[in-house]
Design goal:
Strand content: 5-15%
Number of strands: 3
Number of domains: 2
Helix content: 55-70%
Shape: elongated
Number of helices: 6
Strand order of the largest sheet: 1-3-2
Oligomer: single chain
CATH class of the largest domain: Mainly Alpha
Structural class: mainly alpha
Distance between the termini: 42 Å
């Protein structure tokens, strides 16, 4: 089996992985297919899942007559990778631009802003020690 970090995913494969995480880290081929934009046929989704499994991105287990697919990487690792990709592609690699865009675009409650401020202060303290 190839390490997931050694082979790139196509756009559709990435969409399948995103859907798998959105469905709670496990789903059948049909559940994944139903959530995809312009969904392919059932055979095509099974072939794509088999390719993702061969690349090392997913594994499966049998539940009765169906396969249930799970990512091989943790949710936290996938979040880090997705965030890194988002920052690199849309914000020229700048975490500051990314955070500023989120602050401007979203509707934040005072409690949420206070929590963000507290997190910034926590990170600041950690960097000093």
């Amino acid at each position: 089996m190839v390490s997931p970090s050694q082979e790139k995913m196509s756009r559709r494969e990435r969409e399948i992985m995103d859907t798998l995480f959105a469905l709670g880290d496990q789903a059948s081929a049909e559940e994944i297919r139903a959530r995809l934009s312009d969904p392919p046929g059932y055979s095509a989704i099974r072939a794509m899942l088999a390719r993702l499994e061969a690349k090392g991105y997913v594994r499966h287990r049998e539940e009765g007559l169906r396969y249930v697919y799970m990512p091989t990487t943790s949710r936290s690792s996938a979040q880090r990778n997705a965030l890194t990709r988002l920052v690199r592609v849309f914000f020229r690699g700048s975490p500051q631009e990314t955070a500023a865009a989120l602050l401007k675009q979203e509707s934040w409650t005072d409690e949420e802003l206070d929590a963000l401020r507290a997190e910034i202060e926590r990170v600041r303290r950690e960097k000093k020690s």
